[in-house]
UniProtKB/TrEMBL annotation:
Residue ranges of every copy of the Cathepsin propeptide inhibitor domain listed in the record: 59-116
Span list, region Disordered: 382-402
Protein name (database record): Cysteine proteinase CG12163
N-terminal signal peptide: 1-20
Pfam family, one: Peptidase_C1
Keyword Hydrolase: yes
UniProt GO MF annotations: cysteine-type peptidase activity
Organism this protein belongs to: Cacopsylla melanoneura
Family the UniProt entry places it in: Belongs to the peptidase C1 family.
Length: 402
Protein backbone atom coordinates (compact mmCIF):
# COMPACT_ATOMS: atom_id res chain seq x y z
CA UNK A 1 0.00 0.00 0.00
CA UNK A 2 1.30 3.49 -0.83
CA UNK A 3 1.76 5.39 2.43
CA UNK A 4 0.97 8.80 0.90
CA UNK A 5 -2.30 7.58 -0.63
CA UNK A 6 -3.24 6.08 2.72
CA UNK A 7 -2.49 9.33 4.54
CA UNK A 8 -4.52 11.35 2.06
CA UNK A 9 -7.50 9.03 2.60
CA UNK A 10 -7.20 9.57 6.35
CA UNK A 11 -7.21 13.33 5.87
CA UNK A 12 -10.68 13.03 4.35
CA UNK A 13 -11.85 11.62 7.69
CA UNK A 14 -10.49 14.68 9.47
CA UNK A 15 -7.90 12.93 11.58
CA UNK A 16 -5.04 15.28 10.74
CA UNK A 17 -3.86 17.74 13.34
CA UNK A 18 -3.10 21.32 12.32
CA UNK A 19 0.38 22.64 13.04
CA UNK A 20 0.91 26.40 12.66
CA UNK A 21 4.65 26.24 13.33
CA UNK A 22 7.28 24.73 11.06
CA UNK A 23 7.40 20.96 11.15
CA UNK A 24 10.60 19.29 12.33
CA UNK A 25 11.12 15.55 12.42
CA UNK A 26 9.68 15.42 15.95
CA UNK A 27 6.43 17.09 14.90
CA UNK A 28 6.37 14.87 11.81
CA UNK A 29 6.60 11.76 14.00
CA UNK A 30 3.60 12.96 16.00
CA UNK A 31 1.57 13.68 12.87
CA UNK A 32 2.34 10.31 11.32
CA UNK A 33 1.77 8.51 14.61
CA UNK A 34 -1.72 9.99 14.89
CA UNK A 35 -2.53 9.13 11.29
CA UNK A 36 -1.25 5.59 11.62
CA UNK A 37 -3.13 5.07 14.88
CA UNK A 38 -6.33 6.29 13.24
CA UNK A 39 -5.78 3.96 10.30
CA UNK A 40 -5.34 1.05 12.69
CA UNK A 41 -8.68 1.84 14.26
CA UNK A 42 -10.32 2.11 10.83
CA UNK A 43 -8.80 -1.08 9.46
CA UNK A 44 -8.22 -3.01 12.70
CA UNK A 45 -5.24 -4.55 10.98
CA UNK A 46 -1.99 -4.67 12.96
CA UNK A 47 -0.04 -6.07 10.01
CA UNK A 48 -1.03 -3.11 7.82
CA UNK A 49 0.18 -0.70 10.50
CA UNK A 50 3.52 -2.51 10.76
CA UNK A 51 4.06 -2.27 7.01
CA UNK A 52 3.30 1.45 7.05
CA UNK A 53 5.50 2.20 10.06
CA UNK A 54 8.76 1.26 8.36
CA UNK A 55 8.63 3.88 5.55
CA UNK A 56 7.41 6.49 8.05
CA UNK A 57 10.39 5.83 10.29
CA UNK A 58 12.72 5.95 7.31
CA UNK A 59 11.36 9.33 6.24
CA UNK A 60 11.43 10.93 9.69
CA UNK A 61 14.96 9.60 10.19
CA UNK A 62 15.89 11.26 6.90
CA UNK A 63 14.35 14.51 8.17
CA UNK A 64 16.40 14.29 11.36
CA UNK A 65 19.68 13.39 9.67
CA UNK A 66 19.41 16.17 7.08
CA UNK A 67 17.85 18.87 9.30
CA UNK A 68 14.73 19.05 7.16
CA UNK A 69 12.01 21.45 8.30
CA UNK A 70 8.75 21.95 6.41
CA UNK A 71 6.27 24.81 6.43
CA UNK A 72 3.02 22.85 6.57
CA UNK A 73 1.42 19.43 6.68
CA UNK A 74 0.72 19.71 2.97
CA UNK A 75 4.43 20.13 2.32
CA UNK A 76 5.25 17.32 4.74
CA UNK A 77 3.02 14.89 2.86
CA UNK A 78 4.31 16.05 -0.54
CA UNK A 79 7.92 15.65 0.61
CA UNK A 80 7.10 12.19 1.91
CA UNK A 81 5.61 11.32 -1.47
CA UNK A 82 8.76 12.60 -3.22
CA UNK A 83 10.86 10.59 -0.79
CA UNK A 84 9.03 7.34 -1.59
CA UNK A 85 9.43 7.94 -5.33
CA UNK A 86 13.14 8.66 -4.94
CA UNK A 87 13.72 5.57 -2.80
CA UNK A 88 12.17 3.55 -5.63
CA UNK A 89 14.45 5.34 -8.12
CA UNK A 90 17.50 4.51 -6.00
CA UNK A 91 16.55 0.83 -6.14
CA UNK A 92 16.17 0.96 -9.94
CA UNK A 93 19.51 2.72 -10.40
CA UNK A 94 21.29 0.37 -8.02
CA UNK A 95 20.00 -2.63 -9.97
CA UNK A 96 21.12 -1.08 -13.27
CA UNK A 97 24.66 -0.12 -12.25
CA UNK A 98 27.42 -2.58 -13.14
CA UNK A 99 30.24 -0.76 -11.42
CA UNK A 100 31.04 -0.35 -7.75
CA UNK A 101 28.80 2.69 -7.23
CA UNK A 102 26.56 2.99 -4.21
CA UNK A 103 23.29 4.90 -4.15
CA UNK A 104 21.14 5.83 -1.21
CA UNK A 105 19.23 8.41 0.76
CA UNK A 106 20.87 11.84 0.72
CA UNK A 107 19.95 15.52 1.01
CA UNK A 108 18.06 15.39 -2.32
CA UNK A 109 15.75 12.55 -1.36
CA UNK A 110 12.68 14.72 -0.66
CA UNK A 111 12.90 16.74 -3.89
CA UNK A 112 10.56 16.48 -6.85
CA UNK A 113 11.82 15.73 -10.36
CA UNK A 114 11.46 19.43 -11.21
CA UNK A 115 13.49 20.46 -8.17
CA UNK A 116 16.22 17.97 -9.03
CA UNK A 117 16.39 19.42 -12.53
CA UNK A 118 17.06 22.87 -11.00
CA UNK A 119 20.31 21.45 -9.61
CA UNK A 120 21.59 20.95 -13.18
CA UNK A 121 21.43 23.53 -15.97
CA UNK A 122 23.05 22.32 -19.19
CA UNK A 123 20.40 23.69 -21.51
CA UNK A 124 20.27 23.37 -25.27
CA UNK A 125 17.02 25.30 -25.51
CA UNK A 126 16.43 29.01 -25.02
CA UNK A 127 20.00 30.01 -25.82
CA UNK A 128 20.33 33.24 -27.79
CA UNK A 129 21.98 31.95 -30.96
CA UNK A 130 22.63 35.52 -32.15
CA UNK A 131 25.39 35.62 -29.54
CA UNK A 132 27.12 32.47 -30.77
CA UNK A 133 30.70 33.26 -31.65
CA UNK A 134 32.89 30.42 -32.85
CA UNK A 135 31.07 27.95 -30.58
CA UNK A 136 29.88 25.46 -33.17
CA UNK A 137 32.44 25.99 -35.93
CA UNK A 138 34.60 23.06 -36.93
CA UNK A 139 37.92 24.79 -36.24
CA UNK A 140 37.14 24.56 -32.53
CA UNK A 141 36.88 20.77 -32.75
CA UNK A 142 40.60 20.20 -33.27
CA UNK A 143 42.87 18.01 -31.15
CA UNK A 144 46.06 19.40 -32.66
CA UNK A 145 47.25 20.41 -29.19
CA UNK A 146 47.50 16.75 -28.16
CA UNK A 147 50.83 14.96 -28.52
CA UNK A 148 49.84 11.38 -29.30
CA UNK A 149 53.40 10.06 -28.87
CA UNK A 150 53.58 10.77 -25.16
CA UNK A 151 52.61 8.05 -22.69
CA UNK A 152 50.61 9.59 -19.89
CA UNK A 153 50.85 8.42 -16.24
CA UNK A 154 48.57 5.61 -15.08
CA UNK A 155 47.00 7.83 -12.43
CA UNK A 156 46.37 11.58 -12.46
CA UNK A 157 44.48 13.88 -10.12
CA UNK A 158 44.83 17.65 -10.51
CA UNK A 159 43.61 18.11 -6.93
CA UNK A 160 47.01 16.84 -5.83
CA UNK A 161 48.65 19.83 -7.54
CA UNK A 162 46.59 22.43 -5.70
CA UNK A 163 44.88 23.82 -8.80
CA UNK A 164 41.30 22.89 -7.86
CA UNK A 165 39.42 25.18 -5.50
CA UNK A 166 36.98 24.00 -2.85
CA UNK A 167 33.85 22.24 -4.11
CA UNK A 168 30.88 24.61 -4.16
CA UNK A 169 27.12 24.21 -4.33
CA UNK A 170 25.12 25.82 -7.11
CA UNK A 171 21.98 25.54 -4.99
CA UNK A 172 18.71 25.95 -6.87
CA UNK A 173 20.31 28.06 -9.61
CA UNK A 174 20.63 26.05 -12.84
CA UNK A 175 24.06 27.44 -13.68
CA UNK A 176 26.21 24.31 -13.78
CA UNK A 177 27.37 25.55 -17.21
CA UNK A 178 28.96 28.59 -15.52
CA UNK A 179 30.55 26.54 -12.72
CA UNK A 180 32.05 24.11 -15.23
CA UNK A 181 33.42 26.73 -17.62
CA UNK A 182 34.71 29.11 -14.93
CA UNK A 183 36.15 26.20 -12.94
CA UNK A 184 38.28 25.06 -15.87
CA UNK A 185 39.47 28.61 -16.61
CA UNK A 186 40.30 28.93 -12.91
CA UNK A 187 42.31 25.69 -12.91
CA UNK A 188 44.17 26.47 -16.13
CA UNK A 189 45.19 29.89 -14.79
CA UNK A 190 46.36 28.22 -11.59
CA UNK A 191 48.49 25.76 -13.59
CA UNK A 192 50.03 28.50 -15.71
CA UNK A 193 50.55 31.02 -12.90
CA UNK A 194 51.23 28.61 -10.03
CA UNK A 195 48.66 30.61 -8.07
CA UNK A 196 45.08 29.47 -7.45
CA UNK A 197 42.57 32.34 -7.46
CA UNK A 198 38.88 31.49 -7.19
CA UNK A 199 36.96 33.08 -10.05
CA UNK A 200 33.45 34.48 -10.25
CA UNK A 201 30.63 32.24 -11.41
CA UNK A 202 28.14 35.00 -10.61
CA UNK A 203 29.69 37.22 -13.29
CA UNK A 204 28.60 34.76 -15.96
CA UNK A 205 25.16 34.32 -14.40
CA UNK A 206 24.59 38.09 -14.47
CA UNK A 207 26.56 39.21 -17.51
CA UNK A 208 26.68 36.44 -20.12
CA UNK A 209 23.63 37.25 -22.23
CA UNK A 210 24.35 34.40 -24.64
CA UNK A 211 23.24 32.06 -21.86
CA UNK A 212 20.23 32.11 -19.58
CA UNK A 213 21.58 32.59 -16.07
CA UNK A 214 19.93 30.29 -13.55
CA UNK A 215 17.77 28.77 -16.28
CA UNK A 216 20.60 27.05 -18.09
CA UNK A 217 23.33 27.54 -20.64
CA UNK A 218 26.22 26.01 -22.54
CA UNK A 219 29.95 25.99 -21.96
CA UNK A 220 30.72 26.92 -25.60
CA UNK A 221 28.97 30.25 -25.30
CA UNK A 222 30.34 30.79 -21.80
CA UNK A 223 33.89 30.46 -23.14
CA UNK A 224 33.06 32.86 -25.97
CA UNK A 225 31.83 35.38 -23.39
CA UNK A 226 34.99 35.02 -21.28
CA UNK A 227 37.20 35.62 -24.32
CA UNK A 228 35.20 38.61 -25.59
CA UNK A 229 34.84 40.26 -22.18
CA UNK A 230 38.54 39.99 -21.39
CA UNK A 231 38.22 37.48 -18.59
CA UNK A 232 36.53 36.77 -15.28
CA UNK A 233 36.82 38.70 -12.04
CA UNK A 234 37.73 36.94 -8.82
CA UNK A 235 35.13 35.37 -6.54
CA UNK A 236 36.22 37.87 -3.87
CA UNK A 237 35.38 40.81 -6.14
CA UNK A 238 32.16 39.33 -7.54
CA UNK A 239 30.81 36.70 -5.10
CA UNK A 240 28.26 34.00 -5.88
CA UNK A 241 24.63 34.70 -4.94
CA UNK A 242 22.84 31.63 -6.27
CA UNK A 243 20.33 33.73 -8.20
CA UNK A 244 20.28 36.41 -10.90
CA UNK A 245 21.24 39.73 -9.33
CA UNK A 246 18.46 42.32 -9.31
CA UNK A 247 21.12 44.95 -9.99
CA UNK A 248 22.20 43.28 -13.22
CA UNK A 249 25.75 42.85 -14.42
CA UNK A 250 28.28 44.41 -12.05
CA UNK A 251 31.22 44.42 -14.46
CA UNK A 252 31.75 48.09 -15.25
CA UNK A 253 33.91 49.59 -17.97
CA UNK A 254 36.98 51.29 -16.63
CA UNK A 255 37.07 49.51 -13.28
CA UNK A 256 40.45 48.29 -12.13
CA UNK A 257 39.41 44.88 -10.87
CA UNK A 258 41.74 42.18 -12.14
CA UNK A 259 40.39 39.68 -14.65
CA UNK A 260 41.61 36.17 -15.40
CA UNK A 261 41.20 35.17 -19.01
CA UNK A 262 41.69 32.44 -21.55
CA UNK A 263 43.08 32.36 -25.06
CA UNK A 264 40.95 29.68 -26.73
CA UNK A 265 39.07 26.47 -26.19
CA UNK A 266 39.04 23.14 -27.97
CA UNK A 267 36.19 20.71 -28.54
CA UNK A 268 37.32 17.14 -27.98
CA UNK A 269 35.68 14.86 -30.61
CA UNK A 270 32.63 12.93 -29.43
CA UNK A 271 33.56 9.61 -27.89
CA UNK A 272 37.22 10.55 -27.69
CA UNK A 273 38.02 9.27 -24.21
CA UNK A 274 41.63 8.52 -25.14
CA UNK A 275 41.94 12.14 -26.30
CA UNK A 276 40.39 13.25 -23.01
CA UNK A 277 42.99 11.29 -21.07
CA UNK A 278 45.88 12.78 -23.02
CA UNK A 279 44.51 16.32 -22.74
CA UNK A 280 44.22 15.93 -18.98
CA UNK A 281 47.84 14.80 -18.72
CA UNK A 282 49.27 17.32 -21.16
CA UNK A 283 47.17 20.38 -20.32
CA UNK A 284 44.68 20.21 -17.47
CA UNK A 285 41.06 19.65 -16.37
CA UNK A 286 38.19 19.38 -18.86
CA UNK A 287 34.70 20.88 -18.95
CA UNK A 288 32.19 18.16 -19.83
CA UNK A 289 28.46 17.57 -20.11
CA UNK A 290 26.74 14.50 -18.67
CA UNK A 291 23.30 13.04 -18.10
CA UNK A 292 22.82 13.54 -14.35
CA UNK A 293 19.60 11.56 -14.03
CA UNK A 294 21.31 8.59 -12.47
CA UNK A 295 23.72 10.34 -10.13
CA UNK A 296 21.59 12.49 -7.80
CA UNK A 297 21.57 9.78 -5.13
CA UNK A 298 25.16 8.63 -5.62
CA UNK A 299 27.12 8.15 -2.40
CA UNK A 300 30.41 6.64 -3.61
CA UNK A 301 32.19 4.14 -5.85
CA UNK A 302 32.53 3.95 -9.64
CA UNK A 303 29.41 4.63 -11.72
CA UNK A 304 28.76 2.24 -14.61
CA UNK A 305 25.13 2.73 -15.59
CA UNK A 306 23.66 1.31 -18.78
CA UNK A 307 22.32 3.43 -21.64
CA UNK A 308 18.84 2.60 -20.40
CA UNK A 309 19.65 3.83 -16.90
CA UNK A 310 21.58 6.88 -18.10
CA UNK A 311 21.07 7.71 -21.78
CA UNK A 312 24.32 9.22 -23.13
CA UNK A 313 22.63 11.60 -25.58
CA UNK A 314 20.58 13.37 -22.89
CA UNK A 315 23.16 15.58 -21.19
CA UNK A 316 21.60 17.99 -18.72
CA UNK A 317 24.48 18.83 -16.39
CA UNK A 318 27.98 20.30 -16.70
CA UNK A 319 30.90 19.15 -14.53
CA UNK A 320 34.72 19.08 -14.55
CA UNK A 321 36.91 16.03 -15.16
CA UNK A 322 40.01 16.49 -12.99
CA UNK A 323 41.75 13.14 -13.36
CA UNK A 324 41.60 9.42 -13.97
CA UNK A 325 42.74 6.10 -12.54
CA UNK A 326 41.94 2.41 -12.20
CA UNK A 327 40.55 0.40 -9.32
CA UNK A 328 40.96 -3.31 -8.65
CA UNK A 329 37.52 -4.80 -8.16
CA UNK A 330 37.89 -8.57 -8.47
CA UNK A 331 37.01 -11.25 -11.00
CA UNK A 332 33.43 -10.15 -11.63
CA UNK A 333 34.59 -7.07 -13.55
CA UNK A 334 38.01 -8.25 -14.67
CA UNK A 335 41.17 -7.06 -13.00
CA UNK A 336 40.35 -3.35 -12.83
CA UNK A 337 37.77 -0.71 -13.69
CA UNK A 338 39.22 2.43 -15.30
CA UNK A 339 37.50 5.61 -14.15
CA UNK A 340 37.32 9.38 -14.43
CA UNK A 341 37.51 11.64 -11.37
CA UNK A 342 34.83 14.32 -11.71
CA UNK A 343 34.07 17.45 -9.70
CA UNK A 344 30.40 18.29 -9.19
CA UNK A 345 28.63 21.42 -7.94
CA UNK A 346 26.32 19.96 -5.31
CA UNK A 347 28.47 20.68 -2.26
CA UNK A 348 31.05 18.69 -0.31
CA UNK A 349 28.31 16.77 1.51
CA UNK A 350 27.38 14.96 -1.71
CA UNK A 351 29.12 11.92 -3.23
CA UNK A 352 32.83 11.54 -2.47
CA UNK A 353 33.34 14.95 -0.84
CA UNK A 354 31.71 16.66 -3.79
CA UNK A 355 33.31 14.44 -6.45
CA UNK A 356 32.28 11.25 -8.19
CA UNK A 357 34.02 8.54 -10.18
CA UNK A 358 32.58 7.15 -13.38
CA UNK A 359 33.77 4.28 -15.55
CA UNK A 360 36.14 5.35 -18.31
CA UNK A 361 36.03 4.05 -21.87
CA UNK A 362 32.31 3.40 -22.42
CA UNK A 363 30.87 6.93 -22.62
CA UNK A 364 28.87 6.32 -19.45
CA UNK A 365 26.13 8.95 -19.07
CA UNK A 366 27.50 10.68 -22.18
CA UNK A 367 30.67 11.89 -20.48
CA UNK A 368 32.62 12.04 -23.76
CA UNK A 369 29.86 13.64 -25.87
CA UNK A 370 30.37 17.34 -25.03
CA UNK A 371 33.94 17.98 -23.88
CA UNK A 372 36.03 21.15 -23.90
CA UNK A 373 39.62 21.95 -23.05
CA UNK A 374 40.82 25.49 -22.36
CA UNK A 375 44.12 27.26 -22.94
CA UNK A 376 44.95 30.43 -21.02
CA UNK A 377 46.39 33.57 -22.53
CA UNK A 378 50.04 33.19 -23.38
CA UNK A 379 51.02 36.42 -21.65
CA UNK A 380 49.71 34.97 -18.38
CA UNK A 381 51.89 31.88 -18.49
CA UNK A 382 54.82 31.80 -16.10
CA UNK A 383 57.08 29.02 -17.32
CA UNK A 384 59.56 29.39 -14.49
CA UNK A 385 56.91 28.61 -11.86
CA UNK A 386 55.83 25.53 -13.76
CA UNK A 387 59.42 24.34 -14.09
CA UNK A 388 59.76 24.44 -10.31
CA UNK A 389 57.21 21.62 -10.16
CA UNK A 390 58.89 19.32 -12.63
CA UNK A 391 61.15 17.57 -10.20
CA UNK A 392 58.11 15.82 -8.73
CA UNK A 393 57.80 12.19 -9.81
CA UNK A 394 55.00 10.93 -12.07
CA UNK A 395 52.97 14.14 -12.27
CA UNK A 396 51.16 15.83 -15.14
CA UNK A 397 53.52 18.81 -14.92
CA UNK A 398 55.93 16.78 -17.06
CA UNK A 399 53.59 17.15 -20.02
CA UNK A 400 52.79 20.86 -20.11
CA UNK A 401 55.14 21.61 -23.04
CA UNK A 402 53.26 19.43 -25.52
Amino acid sequence: MNLCVSLKVLLIFGVSAVYCEKITYREAEQIFQKLLSSEEELQNDFQSRSILSEPVLRFTTFMRDHDKVYDSEDELFQRNENFIANVDLVEDISNDDRGTARYGINKFSDLSAEELQQRTGLNWMGINKDHFGSSFREENNSTERINWKITEPEYLDWRDKGVMSKVKSQGECGCCWAFSSVGVVEAMNAIARNDLVELSVQQLVDCDKSNDGCHGGLMDTAFDYIIKSGGVESEADYPYLGYLSEDGCQVKEGNKKKKYGMEKYTRIPQGGEEAMKKWLAQHGPLSVGINARGIFFYTGGIIALSEVGCYPKAQNHAVIVVGYGEESVGDRFGKTIPYWIVRNTWGEDWGEKGYFRIKRGNNICGISEFVHGVEVKKEEQQTQNVNNKRNEKNTPWDYLDC
